C-alpha cells in the first residue's frame, strides 16, 4: 500500500459568479489547494459583501452546494478544480451574526484594487508620442489623425510663453521650435 502526500500546494485559479442583479464575475487571487475555506469565504465577502456565515457556494454542473461547515478545511479537500466557476448566493435563511458587510469592502477582508496595465500599439512614426498622449487624455480613443492637432497645440502653448520656453530649454529659439514641432517629418 502506498500513501501519496501532496508536498507542495497546488495553485487554484478560481472565479466567482455573484448571483445578484448585476450577475458579475470576479477572479479570486492567491488560492491554492492548502487555502482554508474561511480564507476563501473572506475573499468572497470582500468582493460581494456577503458575510461568510450567509454564503452559499455552488460548483459544478449541475451546481452543487459546497460544505462550508468546517472553516479550517482545505480547498484541496473540496470537489473544486482550478478553473472552476463558483456560484455565490446569499442564504437568506441564515441570521447575520457578523458585522454588516458592504459590496467590495468587508471588515477584516479589505482588498486593494489591483492595478491594470494595458498595452496599446500606436503607429511607429514621428507622431507616436502625440498619438499616445491623445490616447491617454481622451480615455482610450486611438486616433492617429490627431497628431497634427496635437502638434499645433504644443506650438501654441510654447509660443504663448517664450520666457519659460526659452532657447535654453528648447535647444533652439522659441519660433524655430514652434515651426519644427508642427512638421510631420524631421
How many strands appear in the DSSP assignment? 7
How far is the N terminus from the C terminus?
Answer: 78 Å
CATH class of the largest domain: Alpha Beta
The number of domains: 2
**Secondary-structure element order, N to C:** EEEEHEEEHHHH
Integer average pLDDT: 79
The side-by-side strand order for the widest beta sheet comes to 3-2-7-5-6
How would you sum up the major sheet? 5 strands, mixed
Radius of gyration of CA atoms, rounded to a whole number: 28 Å
Helix content: 25-40%
Structural class: alpha+beta
Could you name the CATH topology of the largest domain? Ubiquitin-like (UB roll)
The CATH homologous superfamily of the largest domain: Phosphatidylinositol 3-kinase Catalytic Subunit, Chain A, domain 1
Inertia-based shape? rod-shaped
Beta strand %: 5-15%
What CATH architecture of the largest domain do you see? Roll
- Separate helix tally: 5
| Regions with little confidence, pLDDT below 50 for 5+ residues | 1-8, 98-109
Question: What characteristics describe this protein?
Answer:
7 strands; 5-stranded mixed β-sheet; disordered N terminus; 186 residues; alpha+beta; single chain; thiol protease; zinc ion binding; two-stranded antiparallel ribbon; Ubiquitin-like_domsf; Ubiquitin-like (UB roll)
Amino acid at each position: 500500500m502506498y500513501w501519496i502526500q501532496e508536498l507542495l500546494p497546488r495553485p487554484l485559479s478560481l472565479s466567482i459568479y455573484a448571483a445578484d442583479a448585476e450577475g458579475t464575475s470576479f477572479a479570486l487571487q492567491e488560492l491554492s489547494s492548502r487555502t482554508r475555506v474561511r480564507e476563501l469565504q473572506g475573499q468572497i465577502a470582500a468582493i460581494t459583501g456577503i458575510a461568510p456565515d450567509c454564503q452559499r457556494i455552488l460548483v459544478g454542473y449541475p451546481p452543487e452546494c459546497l460544505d462550508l461547515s468546517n472553516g479550517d478545511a482545505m480547498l484541496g479537500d473540496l470537489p473544486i478544480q482550478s478553473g472552476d466557476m463558483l456560484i455565490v448566493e446569499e442564504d437568506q435563511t441564515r441570521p447575520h451574526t457578523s458585522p454588516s458587510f458592504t459590496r467590495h469592502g468587508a471588515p477584516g477582508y479589505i482588498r486593494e484594487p489591483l492595478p491594470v496595465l494595458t498595452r496599446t500599439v500606436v503607429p511607429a512614426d514621428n507622431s507616436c508620442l502625440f498619438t499616445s498622449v491623445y490616447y491617454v487624455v481622451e480615455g482610450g480613443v486611438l486616433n492617429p489623425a490627431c497628431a497634427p492637432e496635437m502638434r499645433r497645440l504644443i506650438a501654441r502653448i510654447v509660443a504663448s510663453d517664450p520666457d519659460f520656453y526659452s532657447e535654453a530649454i528648447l535647444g533652439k529659439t522659441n519660433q524655430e521650435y514652434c515651426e519644427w514641432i508642427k512638421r510631420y517629418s524631421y
